[in-house]
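We close this part of the discussion by returning to an individual protein. In the encoding step, the backbone of a single protein was reduced to a row of integers, each denoting a local shape. The sequence in question and its structure tokens are set out directly beneath this paragraph.
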Amino acid sequence: MFQLFRKNRMWRARPLKSRYRVVIIGGGVHGLSTAYYLTKLGVKDIAVFDKGYLGGGASARTTAIIRSNYLTPEGIPFFDQSVKLYEGLAKELNFNLLFNQMGRLDLGHTDAAVYALRMRTEFNRILGVDSRMIGPAEIKRLVPSMTLREGLPYPIIGALYHPPCGVIRHDAVVWGFGRGADRGGAELHPFTAVTAIDRANGRVTGVETGRGRVEAEIVLNATAGWSSDVARLAGVDLPLTTHPLQAMVTEPLKPFLDKTISSANLHAYVYQTDRGEVVIGGGVDPYPSYSMRSALLPMEQLAGHTLEMFPCLSNVKVLRQWAGLCDMTPDYAPIMGAVDGLDGFILSCGWGSWGFKAAPAAGRNIAALIATGNTPDIIKPFALSRFHQGRLVNERAAAPAAAIH
């Protein structure tokens, strides 16, 4: 007889206590990674709340591309730290994450685009990130199935090649961090919505949930597309807008593509999974919305943009389509750290379309902030206060295919 249920649960169901040192709102990859790294630092009195099942929000709707070829001196070291953590994460968590570092090409179709890619390449190299510019001949050697569009609008005349880039099994990362956090002593409470954040004398004192009030010294907001709504529960306004991001996969095909491909001009990125499916994504929808329903127009646009690079896919069927929510900041960079004027309220949000790749570094550094009270230098530039002080990071150029267009 088949065994339908695991003998040992991935994480334990525990009774809800009335008080914790740390409450984490959001049981996705960022909330769970923070809980995991907190337990590694000796902080055990932690509750993670999610209104649904763990990993069922943005973490379930990602295309899970991991890279560090960003533009700014703030963003490059941070995302590079995250890539390096991902490289050793399966061993650390003792869980197979199916991380495949296949490499990535960011395509340049115009002289201006190639100039921008060359600038990114040099910034990457100066800061120790493996990136280099390549020309059409090497592009064709690396991706023989892709047309170079000679004689057509937007010919491919160069590319930023980033070998460390990879793709990963998104739910495995959630499961690995969740299991690690549970084994370290954190409590995971799915299907527990936070309805209010209590404050007194300039600091947070706890949260109201559907299962009762819970006192807390520290509350972390790690709720992705819902971050601005959750922050308002604490009386904090965030400079975020939430946009849907749609993606799709095709039916399985024989292996023909072993790189991730991104084109800013054609507003699409493409890679093939180990199962043979072709994953296709692009820019966020140009209007703010909390809708996660798939739509025909984005599918048509993504299919059209992809066929401009890969005409060989013209007769391939789309297997499924989905949409996730992206919390976008004005400078396309995240918000991490404490909130001035409200002690104990911590933010890990504004991740837009690149939050999954940042989860290990964000979790580790936010955990260090909570455990020690000191903000690690690598995340100081991403403080909420930068918007009031005019110190914007401006990372848009490093994520053009996912930017609003």
